[in-house]
Design goal:
The complex is a heterodimer. Chain A is α/β, with parallel strands linked by helices. Chain A is 53% helix and 9% strand. In chain B, helix 1 (20-31) crosses helix 6 (144-159). The chains are: A alpha/beta, B mainly alpha.
Amino acid sequence: MRHSLPIQFDRDHPVIRQEYAIYTPPVDEMIAKIGDWIDQQKPGGYIYGPSRFGKSRGIKWHVVSALRDRFRHQLPLVIWPRPAESHTSETEFWHHLLLASNFHFPGAAQAKRKSEKRYLVIQRFITLARFARGNYIVLLIDEAQDLTLREWQWLVGLQNSLDWEGYRLSIFSVGSHQMGYRHELLAVSGNAHIAARFFVAHARFHGLASVEEVEYVLQGYDIASEWPQGSKTSYLQYFAPDAFARGGRLAHVAQNVWSAFAALLPPGLNVKTMEVPVQHLAHSVEAALFRLALGHHWEDVTSYQSWLDMIADTSFSDHMRVVSSAA
Amino acid sequence: MLRPSPVNWGRGQLMPYESIASFCGRFGAFNGLTLKQTRQFYSEFCGQPWSLETGRTINARKAARLLDEPVSVVCTIYPTEIYAGRKGEFKKYFPIGRDLYVPFCNRCIKMGYHSSFHELLYLEKCPFHHEDLRHMQCLGRGAYLTRYVKTVTTLLRNENPKWPDISPEVGQIFRSDEFAALTRWKADTRFIILLISWLNERQFYYPNLPPPGTTHQGRRLFAGRLLLKANHKEAYFRWLLPEISNSRLQPASGAAYVTAFLKELERLKIPILRINRLL
């Protein structure tokens, strides 16, 4: 539907490009937890939760600014979205860390060997810590469920080396719920030191668990969003200016949305413990915004039946079935 | 919001008055770059070709932002009073006979430090440790600049296991009374040093002193005598060549000497305007 929008809607709009993230209560919870770990300078910690719950988007769009607001200065934070393909080469592993840390010369001619790449990573982290006028740096790894044992071992070495140089490194990992098993697996396979460092502190990333949380997210589209920057035009106002002017707000129909999700929950799953993946809500809201942009009536688009259709189109039921069987 | 620099160089790693050769070597090591790549990066960064003798033309504020170092420290590695020439070739600043030598202080090198002060033509001793400066013939072949930087880097790497880091002890140098005296002296003599550099650049020699074609030692003596005339404080003498400090030259004020010098230039019909522009 996004491709059939009238020409007056800018194709660079974040909602059309799906390049945005609404601040959600679970993201807030995750960032608060990471902030607490930073306060305590824990050597490691991991956050796990089912896929499509909004972890990666929260990290990409909100972690840096939210932590800056909390600590009132820019933390030396390196975010590494680990590529899904497996890494067999140590050189490549260090190369990815250099890229993640925004290093200008990741392919430097003098650093072809893994030991040289590793040296550059150490110097890079020291540079970032010094830039923040401290001796502390945080590495946040997204999609960490794919990290291999060897990679964890290299990270232990990195942490030790920086420690020797007088710098403290915290490594926080975020991954799918498979990570929940990693702790025990490492402990029983003779790698308890890795588990003790990186997995003792942990927290679960939740989906949207109540109608109030859904309402909070919808308010993001209603008022707590803006595009173009500085225009004070929210996402809803951009796509449905007339309805917005008449006082229409998505947050007002949060109960319809929640009920539709509950109705589409696969049999056997408890509505009281239901957690809605943010991505399914986002895609449903995007569909609603596009319908409004195409001239559909506000009442039709925001009705319970309409939400049922739009949510069903996101394959919510199938996703929940898969996630619940994997958990 | 300030973004961290994209290069590996943390605040506090640059030492005041560090020689450009030392800086080049260490910057390359921290970033995995060859000397050629380092120069290329700086040329692109500054938007103009970069070499040791034109290093001073680098925008110090821009460089300070890149390195996350104070502008005041960055300025010291491009000391205009030492590298006074605007253009010209590197060899003119280090013209020790036909071969190129790196002057250094053994104690400084062991701390991983090589200073532009060590490169002053007329100093016999390290201004920080009062030890005789040594000279090492430059390694390899090729461009003067490359050979010079390589030799400084090799010296530092061989003598200091923690290179490219510099020992924290170096910091004490800059808090000492000796260093304060040295910087005062440098400020006092800035004008004279510029004249010397101008003379060096143009291979010009004062008529009654070392004639054209004289040895490097002769030129060093001449440079030192100029300084002696400009500065008659006893404390400064010990850094200079012994021939200079033992000479019976009558001390004169810097201003008086410069006036006489300019008159001499006028007599020789050397355009003074060029000097003024240089200064």
